[in-house]
Amino acid sequence: MTILTCVNRVIRDRCRLGAVTGYVRSAPGTYVWLLILFVTTLVLHYMSPAFEREFLRERSTNIHELSRDPVRVLITSAMWIDGGRWLPYAALYTAVHAQAERWLGTLRWLLVCAAAHVLATLISELTLLNAIRDGAAPLRAVHTLDVGVSYALAGVAGVLTYRIAAPWRYLYLAVVLAAVLVPLVTGATFTDFGHFVSVLVGLACYPLVRGRGKAWNPKETLTALKG
Questions:
Q1: C-alpha angle 157/158/160, rounded to 5°?
Q2: What would the pLDDT profile of 119-131 be if each residue is shown by its tens digit?
């Protein structure tokens, strides 16, 4: 390997590293949140299964904890992942959250995340509470484990509909709706209902996307790549 080859490789590696670093800096909220999830997921790996479940339940947005300290659990529940798999979320955050934050700006992106997380949680838990009162769900459901970041993720996926130009936007929306409606129809858990509500909340955030530039047209991107 010649010196020139080595120099070229170093330059390419630095360019790639610079591109990655620039991308991360363009979506600071997304990657700070992802870093927090990495740390908390690592912490969970050192807990016994029984202790982990009780630990997460105390930070869960179930009916019992919401009735005691709603603000605390609405915040802490978004800092933990039930299941211990961080890498899939790293991919989803990059594909969904980072794209939305780069497009909307950190503040507007955070507003969408908060609206989806809070409203979907409260609506789904209120639905569960009514089901318990009607005898359709057991009383122990007030302690159901409910932590995670999926409501915010679904809400942001919903608002990203407006990032895509028509007619591609309708294909994207159909995929997103199918992703939340199929589990709702086949499983019908309160979490499935919460995901559906989250997407609707994201779609209702249309006022936040005004003035954020031209919608992305996949056809134009493909044409540019070809030629």
A1: 65
A2: 999 999 999 999 9
